[in-house]
Write a structure and sequence with these properties.
Layout (H helix, E strand, L loop, with lengths): L1 H23 L4 H15 L4 H25 L2 H6 L1 H26 L4 H11 L4 H11 L5 H28 L5 H25 L1 H9 L4 H21 L4 H12 L5 H24 L4 H6 L1 H23 L5 H10 L5 H12 L5 H23 L1 H8 L4 H9 L7 E4 L3 H12 L4 E5 L2 H9 L5 E3 L5 H6 L7 E4 L4 H12 L7 E4 L3 H6 L7 E3 L4 H9 L8
Parallel strand pairs: 1-2, 1-4, 2-3, 4-5, 5-6
Helix pairs in contact: 1-2, 2-13, 3-7, 3-12, 3-13, 5-6, 5-8, 5-15, 6-8, 6-17, 7-18, 8-9, 8-16, 8-17, 9-12, 11-12, 15-16, 15-18, 16-19, 17-18
Amino acid sequence: MDHLLIGLVVTISLATIINVYLKKFNIPTVIGYILTGFLIAQIFYFGDSSKETLAHLAEFGIVFLMFTIGLEFSISHMRAMKKEVFVYGALQVILSGLLFTFLAFTFFDITLKNAIVIGMALSLSSTAIVLKILNENGDIHTGYGRVVLGILLFQDLAVIPMLLMISIFTSTTSSVSALLLETVISAVLVFVSLFIVGKYFIERFFNWVTTSESEEIFLASVILIVIASSFLAEFLGFSYSLGAFLAGMTIAETKYRYRVEADLVPFRDILLGIFFVTIGMQINLEIVGNFIFTILGLLVAIMFIKALVLFLAMRLFMQNRSAIKSALSLMQVGEFALAIFALANSYQIISDQTNQIMIVTLVLSMIITPFVLKNIKYLADLFFKEPIGLRERALTSTGYKDHVIVCGYGPVGKMLIERFKENQVLYVILEHDVKLVDEALAKGEENIFLANAAQKSVLEHFGIKESMAIFSAVSNPHQVRLICENIDSFGDNVNSVVTVKNQSQEESIADLNITHVLNRRETVTDILAKQICAFKRVE
């Protein structure tokens, strides 16, 4: 125990020093933690029990990350993301997994079972690194960020059948049908249990806890829910992170969502740091020295193939620029592959040497990822230039007065514009999704501009102070909050109308100076009917 505590003290000290210096060069903290883990592994000898303790502690980092991501995506939001999760995610995992299986079986002297395990594990990407950097960059709510999140969620689900596959390959007693039936029953139990608890219990539980008026007790209750959900999922054969994500989704439906998120972020980031330290500890210098060219060759080949497969698949559904960003974001191999390789190695499906080569290769791919994500726009420009014509058009379009600003061109935004056209109201549409802007321009809509309404300079540019009103027709809860904060910063003289989807979203902006908050989409028409005559008509 003393040896472990000394190691922890040195690890934290070294991580702090390294990251302070790396931050001066704008290098992500993830790299500092991985480098710390590598150096610590060379300085200290951690026995199997100590490594296992660190691994369990580090796993909580991923658990809290997935929980906070779940807070961003309520059950209704998840239903809206079914295409990103079950179509894009399935395409990525199946296509990449089959291609890697074919290449491994064809070009390497391994059995088909070995090739399938390696191929499917290589199809997985790093949830921990990718979501951490996307959150830091603020890209998690962009078009490509939504796609990346959906694919990562499907990958987390796909880990379950991959682990089941290893059990099938090695099982000498249970039949395949029995294993599949057991997994299906477990999945139903997990989803039904968390759904019932979330719908009928969690908000009442928090209401009861808050009567104590103690932040300490409230935080303890949140941690209890996270750990209990993770344990339930793991007990029934799934990953800890899946249970935490589902718990986050259920809390996202309550009024406590933002308070919970703010309380847990420090714990999440510290524990994630420990997780990345354990990743660095798995770099084996002897393996690197003996197989350096094999490792580098595999590294380049794996990342290139993953990016190419995902880009070719995604360009069927989205613009090339968004597709290349998604591909570059997910071309590394993720932490769940470590678990699959470890289990496969313990069952002797893959050899010790193959296991070590694959571990070093995927760790190197994870080290490269933060640099890729930090420079994603520049890298995307190398392949497909950003449509700066739209940006320039927005910057030169000034002079509006007595107009209505519409933020978002989704279903609600389109309905608003139709009503404005019928009543000859002067309007301006601000939309940050290039695809929606392109579609609108192609249909002859001239008053739409590529701009982010969550930025104060944008609303100033389009004359919010001279406008008759501003409508937020955005569906993303996080973006709604940012836009409302932006509107609130202009003072009391702005006539604002904001649409929300539920009571939780309405309460999340209750502290801001918003003139009208519409809780149901149908009421938009009612408010318009009352106010439309007050808006200045186009001359």
